């Protein structure tokens, strides 16, 4: 698959040949969905907690005698039936993370990249670098390229000025190649790859 390469200023910078094994697959929604669910499960904090009967500070003495009161039988006052008692089967601090094989994760990334390439949401630029970190100038470049909602992936090292200028722009994310992931690709309309990012992806899946 051949794709045109542009500069940030919108000028033509040749073309690049993309591997069909990475960008030319027929996207499978089930594989992509499994990876997105794995990511969301992994990042869930799981710090919610309710007091159980063991956590309530209240006497454990039997409330009243077993028989002869005409009321129901009760023991501890910490039980959920009483106001101020512990909650039955409440949430506890735990990990929500699930398992997903590495091969499935790698395949999901390929399918997400292929989905962007198929629907025309993939843009390749020469490099993500600016001379001075000015957000206003970068917004002008992005509007010229039609980027209002995009994920920009650069090589191993981000250009400091570019990352600084882009961080104040809403709906624009900038990540190094190590941070590329399925969820962030799908949540933005456009995926912008630098030539360094394309080379790194092809080396990664070689």
Automatic annotation (TrEMBL):
What the entry lists under PANTHER family is as follows: 50S RIBOSOMAL PROTEIN L4, LARGE RIBOSOMAL SUBUNIT PROTEIN UL4M
From the UniProt record, give one GO term of the biological process aspect: translation
Q: Name one GO molecular function term.
A: structural constituent of ribosome
Protein name per Swiss-Prot or TrEMBL = Large ribosomal subunit protein uL4
Q: Which Pfam families does the entry link to?
A: Ribosomal_L4
Tell me which GO cellular component terms the UniProt record holds.
ribonucleoprotein complex; ribosome
- Similarity remark: Belongs to the universal ribosomal protein uL4 family.
Q: What is annotated about its quaternary structure and interactions?
A: Part of the 50S ribosomal subunit.
What SUPFAM superfamilies does UniProt report for this protein, alphabetically? Ribosomal protein L4 (SSF52166)
Q: Which UniProt keywords apply?
A: Ribonucleoprotein, Ribosomal protein, RNA-binding, rRNA-binding
Q: What does this protein do?
A: Forms part of the polypeptide exit tunnel.
